[in-house]
Fold this sequence. Notes:
Layout: H1 4-15, H2 18-39, H3 43-59, H4 71-91, H5 100-109, H6 113-131, H7 135-146, H8 151-158, H9 162-191
Helix pairs in contact: 2-3, 2-4, 3-4, 6-9, 7-9, 8-9
Amino acid sequence: MPDELEKRNWAGFAKGDPDIWREFINRQIPLLFGVFMKRWPNPSLAEELVQKSVFDAVRGLDSYNPSKGSPKEWLLGIARNNIRLEIRKRSARPTANGDISRYLQTIDTEPLPDEILERRETAEMVRWALGRLKSKEQAVLRAKYTEGLMAVEIAGQMHTTEKAVHNLLYRAKISLRRELKLMKSSWMIGLK
């Protein structure tokens, strides 16, 4: 059963006290990472789900009610929901029907030029959009997705905190998405 000091912290958490939030998030990120790694031993996916859960918590702070439980229980509930969403998303992906060895043999023996061309075009578009981002956003996206570094390693390279890297990754993804949408709309206008 929580003591009176802990319950006061819960109330401060619910009000968005930055010191309580900072301390709470710093303690919970490793816990969330462990929860996600137990489900999928994929550090990149685990980091993305941690980041999503933390941002969901920040956005949904109004839904936290200290009388219903601790902030930790609330955040773990958000994490469990994100796990369920990921499972649903993965189960909705199409799967190969029939004999998979036949598909593999076709892929191994026959070139697939359309796919190769599409990948090249996609890579060129992403490179172009990435080049339009701020240098910090470019650096963090390259470190994460090209070099495959974890947030803590990126933080060491950039001489900043892991939380700052998560925030920068979040903003960089939004910026990249915006640039790609701009490119797509410009391209669509050019077709007309």
